[in-house]
Design a protein that fits this description.
- The chain is α+β, with helices and mostly antiparallel strands and 159 residues long.
- It has 2 domains: 76 residues, Ubiquitin-like (UB roll) (Roll), CATH 3.10.20.30; 73 residues, [2Fe-2S]-binding domain (DNA polymerase, domain 1), CATH 1.10.150.120.
- The mean pLDDT is 95.
- A hairpin with a 2-residue loop joins strand 1 and strand 2.
- The chain has 5 helices and 5 strands; from the N terminus they run ββαβββαααα.
- Bound molecules: FE2/S2 (inorganic) cluster (FES) (2 copies).
């Protein structure tokens, strides 16, 4: 066991854990940040997606020892001052979820997509989101929600 100081959502959080423990496990079981979901545990479903230095990563496959000095953003860190980010808002407005299990991973990945490609084509959306699996099959609504978020971000930046 070792002491770590993790930079999560703009705060430095101390945690004591084995350096090999997954970031997902630390978030959920030691820091009680349960917005990030455990799906497959094998890097295949995307439910556990977080941002590391702004890039989407599967937190079930990342040891905390390897991210001790990284900037980590989870779903809990996407809203600011009680205001949802455009992707979160669009997912709600388009009802782009059923059971919701995949949703936080989808939103985190889509947030990264829009930072990289503010106005993505449908093909870019499908390709970028390819590793995020929705067992409820809400893909069409998810695509529409991402397009809506893209539009509202563009309108917001013009306002
Ligand atoms: S739980 Fe990490 S990719 Fe499925
Ligand atoms: S909404 Fe159920 S897994 Fe996607």
């Amino acid at each position: 066991m070792a002491d770590f100081r993790l930079n999560i959502n703009g705060k430095v959080l101390p945690v004591r854990a084995d350096g090999q423990e997954s970031l997902l496990s630390v978030l959920r079981n030691r820091l009680e940040m349960t917005g990030t979901k455990y799906g497959c545990g094998e890097g295949e479903c995307g439910a556990c997606t977080v941002l590391l230095e702004g890039k989407p990563r599967r937190s079930c496959r990342v040891s905390i020892g390897s991210v001790a000095h990284s900037r980590i953003t989870t779903i809990e860190g996407l809203e600011h001052d009680g205001k949802l980010n455009p992707v979160q808002q669009a997912f709600l407005e388009e009802e782009a979820l059923q059971c919701g299990y995949c949703t936080s991973g989808m939103i985190v990945s889509a947030t990264a997509l829009l930072r990289e490609h503010p106005q993505p084509s449908e093909k870019q959306i499908v390709e970028f989101m390819n590793g995020n699996i929705c067992r409820c099959g809400t893909y069409p609504r998810i695509i529409v929600a991402i397009q809506r978020a893209s539009k509202s971000t563009a309108e917001g930046s013009r306002a």
